[in-house]
Amino acid sequence: MTTMSTPFDLSGKTAVVTGGGRGLGLGISDALLEAGADVIVFGRSPLPVALTKHAAELGRQVDFVAVDLANSDTIAAAADQVLSARRVDILVNNAGTQDRYPAVNFPLAAWDSVLDVNLRAVFQLCQQFGRPMLERGEGKIVNLASLLSFQGGTTVPAYAASKGAVAQLTKALCNEWSSRGVNVNAVAPGYMATEMNTACWPTRSAWSRSRRGSRQVAGESQRTSATSWCSLPLRLRHTFTARSSPSTGAGWPDDRRAGP
User: Fold this and answer.
1) Among residues 54, 95, 121, 159, which one is catalytic?
2) What is the pLDDT of residues 97-136, one digit of tens each?
3) Is residue 34 included in any domain, yes or no?
4) Catalytic residue check, 159
């Protein structure tokens, strides 16, 4: 695993990353470890050996807490377990799910399932980890939105709705909490070559090549993207952003590698 230099130091900090053992979340966990933070992964599957090895090589600590993000009781129990023993400085709400049906035939049960994980769980985790941050007057929360927060997509109405809501939730929490020392930001990645997106590879890759030439859908191995998405909101204050200027507070989706 390639170690990257980082533009800032998170030594002594602890971060919780949901879904931090696979896909884009794995890249985020790696980036935080490289920046000096210890990482607690919330998820359903055990940590990959590569991640624990990477942490050991860096002298960092990585822990795993089993949690079903579709179940509010297990979320509450997992958060209470961590907060009873650790101070959490950074929360990264990365985990998400999607289901694909034409909108006219989209099952309501599938809608509820996607919204539970992608939105309700995000809000619940922001509440639970945000409370001690607000009490201390310091903390960082990074929510993973999506290009579909802005573009809607096709055959994924629940996912698009949930990610649009994550964008607005991030702004709402930022408005309430920024003056109290807790920075709430979101990043909106483009299409990444992760398991969740395998259904759209043939058409997406062809589209990307036709529009961008050699700039294609980003792969899991391209950890620099995950690092930049993870680190940028931790440095900026009081903005919803994927690529923004701290002087203007403007934000827009990070589509440097992928199209709409």
Assistant:
1) 159
2) 999 999 999 999 999 999 999 999 999 999 999 999 999 9
3) yes
4) yes
